[in-house]
Amino acid sequence: MSKAEEAKKLAGRAAVENHVRNNQVLGIGNGSTVVHAVQQIAERVKQENLNPVCIPTSFQAQTDLTIDGADEVDVDLNLIKGSRGCLTQEKIVAGNASCFIERFKEPQGISSTRGTPIKVIPMAYVPVSRAVTQKFGGVIELRMAINKADPLFDGVHKWSEGNTAIKMIPGVVDTGLLISMAERVYFGKQDGSVNMREKPF
User: Fold this and answer.
1) Which among 39, 77, 108, 139 has most CB atoms closer than 10 A?
2) Distance CA 50, CA 38 (A)
3) What domains are defined for the chain?
């Protein structure tokens, strides 16, 4: 297992150990690190006879706790998610959770480097691309999400102030920006340690 993958595993296990309780309704995300959290939940079910109800991001439901991974996170625990094309489903589950916990590997600090996914309806990708470029500049990259029907844009590097402006553009379904939604983020470090940061108030 690579050091990066080990960091994901450590963060996922810490989140499950600290927050999963018996009889909770758990939201389970689509990120690449989710497998480690699910494995830890399964171990605790066997060892402690827990009885959780797990809701994947493909279903909308009220949950007690959602555990997922993030693509990027800033100092205020705002998140960028959705690089795999599941950003709308992930936000629905996160928005219906009483407690939303993220896991993140932290190889070089926390910053925005890769842009923001924007989900659009297919017929709108040209005018949306034009509008986003005019408002924010940068380079827009069109890609089809794997196993998803709608195209995604990458290339927006502003966070909270950009989220509302982008969503007001006709044809935009949603953005990969999760503003003020995460209560805690666990950072798996390559040295084997795990840091936890709570949402600033």
Assistant:
1) 77
2) 13
3) 3-111+178-198 (3.40.50.1360), 118-175 (3.30.70.260)
Looking at mean pLDDT, say which of 54-68, 108-122, 184-198 comes out highest. 184-198
Catalytic residue among 90, 102, 141, 198: 90
CB 68 within 8 A of CB 106: no
Residue 93's region, left for phi above 0, alpha for psi from -120 to 50, else beta, is: alpha
Instruction: Specify the pTM.
Output: 0.67
Residue 165: Cβ within 10 Å count: 16
For residue 90, indicate whether it is catalytic.
Answer: yes
Q: What is the pLDDT of residues 38-78, one digit of tens each?
A: 888 989 999 999 998 887 765 545 677 777 777 888 878 88
- Is the distance from CB of 114 to CB of 153 less than 8 angstroms? no
